[in-house]
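Structure tokens please, single chain.
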Amino acid sequence: RSRSAFKLLEINDKFDLFQFGDSVIDLGCAPGGWSQVAVEKTNSNLNKLMQKQGRVIGIDLKPILSISGAEIYVFDFLENNFDKKIGEILNHKVDNVLSDMASNSTGHKKSDHLRIMALCESAAFFAFDYLNDGGNFVAKVLAGGAETELQNLLKKKFKKVINFKPKSSRSDSSEKYVVALNFKKD
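Here you go.
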């Protein structure tokens, strides 16, 4: 569904995020490329009958076409009652939280950078609440200076935090991904 699916495939090849049977929350899932990858890599559509079945939950502000093996919800994960809504869907913690979210571009580089970093930080705090011990977090960030704070925050909660720019990203783009592996409960 999107070029970003190739970026997640590359991230998974490098860091081995997904296992059959994993549960995944894809924040900002539109148009659905990351959810499609997660479905395939976790076996949430039960293609391999002798393997564990995963679960993929996609959340976005806008509706998207359905994806076989994924549960798609139209929610704003930043609204006050989101905890209640996600609590009705989840009955356990998850193995991976993904965020390929980006706010609408204003054209002002510094403002756009700060807005996407605020989304990333919110996604990180969401991950702290909903990840299993040993879980992973991946989020798109834009280079611009404010990502250092996010890195420091993640380093307190994960055993390994890496910045990664997939080859499938445009070389002129300031986009990169922060990959946080092996979540440590307090």
